[in-house]
Amino acid sequence: MQETFDITTLIFLGLAVFVIWRLRSVLGQKTGNEQPPFDPFARRDPPPARPGAPAEDNVVRLPGAPGERAAGPKTPPADRWKGIAEPGTRIAQGLDDIARLEPAFDAQEFLGGAKAAYEMIVSAFAQGDRSTLKNLLSREVYDGFERAITEREKRGEKVETTFVSVDRAEIAGVEVRGSQGQVMVRFASKLITATRDATGAVVDGSPDTVVDVTDVWTFARTLASRDPNWLLVATEAGQ
pLDDT at position 25, please? Predict the structure, then answer.
């Protein structure tokens, strides 16, 4: 039994040596052309360009990447100012000038803001609210309003103003010089207004009468700036 075991063991040892020798002859010898271990984070050079292909035809650029050709400006529709200004008029051309500097400019939205500003400014002037006026007026216009309020206070007078309605707000003119934009807006409104002296007697207007008022106000701002606010820079009575 011991002899049988020894012969069997020798046979298996011989087979093991033979297998190891064959594996080494195939895999264990270096030829000088071996590839290094694969590193998934290693930086790799781009593959050579195909013959006749552009040098960067395998590069995918992100939107806005340097070197990407910007798309040309889209032609605005002819009726972009529908309900605001007729195509080809000076007002439409002025609005186009604004939109070239501020593509997102919305004339309807601007008029909505102008109407809100109109009511706020008229009410603030009647109440002597200098803080509100300072945020909505240019320095020159504010100084004029402030002087009128101060003179009224010296006389002991108070103004009562009630808006009945703002019937119409329409763009009456547009001008762009450099980055400065100005828009004239004609307001047609109905107001009840009366001025009382220190004794409470009415010295101007009537607390019971609705009057039609037309004003032309000019709003201005630096286009394409971070400050979105339009300021009142001029006022005049309209016709």
Answer: 42
Q: Give the type of residue at 124.
A: A
**SS3 of 64, please?**
coil
Do 187 and 168 form a contact (C-beta atoms < 8 A)?
A: yes
Contact between 43 and 57 under an 8 Å Cβ cutoff? The reply is: no
Instruction: Identify the pLDDT of residue 156.
Output: 97
- pLDDT over 80 at 16, yes or no: no
- Closest alpha carbon to 172 in 97, 98, 84: 84
Contact in structure between 232 and 215 (CB atoms under 8 Å) = no
- 118, with CB counted inside 10 A (0-12, 13-18, 19+), is buried
107-127 vs 139-155: helix crossing angle, rounded to 10: 30
CB 163 within 8 A of CB 187: no
The answer to whether 68 touches 74, Cβ cutoff 8 Å, is no
Q: Is the pTM of this model over 0.85?
A: no
Q: Which CATH class is domain 90-237?
A: alpha beta
Contact 61, 184 (CB under 8 A): no
Paired tokens of 94? 């002025």
Residues 6+ apart with CB under 8 A from 84: 91, 92, 95, 107, 108, 111, 170, 171
